[in-house]
User: What shape does this take?
Amino acid sequence: MNEFEQWVEEATAAFAAAHAPADLENAKARFLGKAGRVTEHLKALGRLAPEEKKARGALINAAKQRIEAALAARRDALAQAELEKQLAGEALDVTLPGRRRGEGSLHPITRARMRIESIFRSMGFDVADGPEIETDWYSFTALNNPENHPARSMQDTFYVDVKDAEGHWLNLRPHTSPMQIRYAQAHARRHAGRGTMPDIRVIAPGRTYRVDSDATHSPMFHQVEGLWLGEQVSFKDLKAMYLDFIKAFFETDDVKLRFRPSYFPFTEPSAEIDIMFESGPLEGRWLEVSGSGQVHPQVVRNMGLDPERVIGFAFGSGIDRLAVLRYGMSDLRPFFDGDVRFLAQFA
Ligand code: 2NL
Assistant: This one.
């Protein structure tokens, strides 16, 4: 191996040993830089005779070109390696499954309420809405509750630290009846002074509050009340209508209904409504599902209507209780615990 081949060999080895661009530039300087080996020898040519200078110069230049070619090849190799490293770091595995966002769902009580609303709408009932913080008159007086009735006590009803125009504490409505009183009043005003008035057919679903808390009572619960008033509305309408509702809600015709005498200040006579399934998991047991009764004449009067002309019934059922029965639960508390593992089962 001659002197020049030796240079090329050494330079190629030095370039191969460089793994970073800076190392490569240092290696380059040792051969091609101002004080590098090739440059030193080119400078030394000046001291030679013309003949010798030409011959040796050609050999040095040939070696220089080969070293430059080796340098360029190594630069390309390092750049390519760097690019591949970068691409590997950014690689996407397009076969991985996507990250799903949970979709959420309606609360089972909301679903039960919406079911109840659509069943009653299909039977010609309107759906009322109204405030959860009520006045003493709408929650109690309009409903014929005497001044000393226990429902008015702090033991039974939640009060708000604000007084109404008559100087009574506002309350968290203990039933949804106030919405029906407001609805009936508006209906009476709209048809005042006319000979006839269309029947009032309305349900009032929503949150209600009582000082009560155990396996079957929550301080916040949901009620649906219904009201049907007209000139010829009787208990047989209530029985047929309520049985149709139960059949639609529980999706079965295998169910019986019975009335049991009861007492409420706002109805007279009053009755509990029991149902019994004749098949399925709840078969053979009478289940209490609602209070009901013929609306008390004083309550009809408080609605702005004439009890001599208008008669009818009202009922009040617990939405939570209906949902507990429909979903086969033994306890209503899971509805209010907010545990998504329970709630997701209804999605
Ligand atoms: C119960 C009792 C009942 C009513 C609610 C009512 C509403 C108006 C007038 C007359 Cl505006 N009555 N509602 C009537 C009877 C019973 O509910 O213990 N429900 C769970």
User: Anything to note?
Assistant: Residues 177, 180-181, 225, 227, 264, 266-267, 291-293, 295, 299, 314-318 surround 2NL (CB under 6 Å). The first helix runs from residue 3 to 17. The chain is about 45% helix and 20% strand.
